[in-house]
Specification:
Elements (H helix, E strand, L loop, with lengths): L9 E3 L16 E3 L2 H9 L5 E5 H5 L3 E4 L5 E3 L6 E5 L8 E3 L5 H15 L4 E3 L8 E5 H10 L6 E4 H9 L3 E8 L6 H17 L1 H6 L4 H11 L6 H16 L10 E4 L1
Parallel strand pairs: 1-2, 1-3, 4-12, 7-8, 7-9
Antiparallel strand pairs: 3-11, 4-11, 5-11, 6-9, 6-10
Length: about 260
């Protein structure tokens, strides 16, 4: 089943949190980790992609599907800084190379609200080093190490605590020259409605169906409303304030 316009090339992240937004599109969606998906989109290989929000706000202009997101209004569970030392004592943090949104969100949170500027490494230098984890591997790590000395700074919860706003981790971004973007956005909103209604079915396919159901209904939100748009704008402003993107003007974002 697919409502997508003929010939439309779409891509998504392969994580559980994206499955309600691509439900019924099996075989028509290119799946890749966030950084590689963004590279495919930038190279012109995709017409639309469920991209990390950083990839939208870091560019000069972005065309985004309205009312669809991978977001959280508090704890997200699957995006966190795992650390064993007190936060203020962390000298170095290993980043997950697969996502620039989460890496830059962590940098913004630590710089803006904690006054911290640790060294950031591309991979852990030892087994005890603090590290940023995202997606399905993060869920597995958190559940495996919940009681053995690791602490978890959930980035969704920390953003909410510091800003009183939800956080948007990913959204559908369209090529600027895409013909009839409104039609594609309407089709993706239809897919979203179908996927949200099927969350129990999606969860049932997972090894731990009850946790997957809770994750998709309690931790992850899929709407992109006015508060989410304010959060996107604030994230863009903080990225520029802390020199994490080039240019000084916020991205020109259009929602369709």
């Amino acid at each position: 089943m697919s409502e997508l316009p003929n010939g439309c090339r779409v891509g998504s992240v392969p994580y559980l949190n994206a499955r309600p937004l691509i439900y019924g599109l099996e075989g028509r969606v290119t799946l890749d980790v966030p950084s590689q998906l963004a590279a495919r989109f930038a190279a012109g290989g995709l017409d639309a992609a469920l991209l990390p929000v950083y990839e939208a706000v870091a560019r000069e202009r972005a065309l985004i599907a309205d009312d669809i997101a991978i977001a959280s209004d508090g704890a997200v569970f699957s995006v966190f800084l795992a650390h064993r030392q007190p936060l203020a004592e962390l000298e170095a943090i290993a980043l997950d190379p697969s996502s620039r949104t989460s890496s830059h969100l962590l940098r913004c949170l630590l710089a803006e609200f904690h006054g911290l500027d640790p060294r950031y490494d591309p991979a852990p230098r030892d087994a005890a080093q603090g590290r940023l984890l995202i997606g399905d591997p993060a869920i597995a790590f958190r559940r495996a190490h919940d009681a053995d000395g690791w602490q978890f700074l959930d980035l969704g919860a920390e953003w909410r605590r510091c800003t009183d706003l939800p956080f948007v981790f990913a959204c559908w971004v369209f090529r600027e020259d895409l013909r009839e973007p409104g039609a594609l956005a309407d089709a993706l909103r239809t897919v979203k409605r179908r996927g949200l209604a099927a969350r129990a079915e999606i969860a049932a396919e997972c090894a731990d169906a009850e946790f997957a159901r809770r994750y998709l209904t309690e931790f992850i939100q899929f709407d992109l409303g006015e508060n989410e748009k304010r959060a996107v704008a604030l994230f863009a402003a903080l990225l520029r304030k802390h020199g994490l993107v080039t240019g000084t003007a916020d991205a020109e974002i259009r929602y369709v």
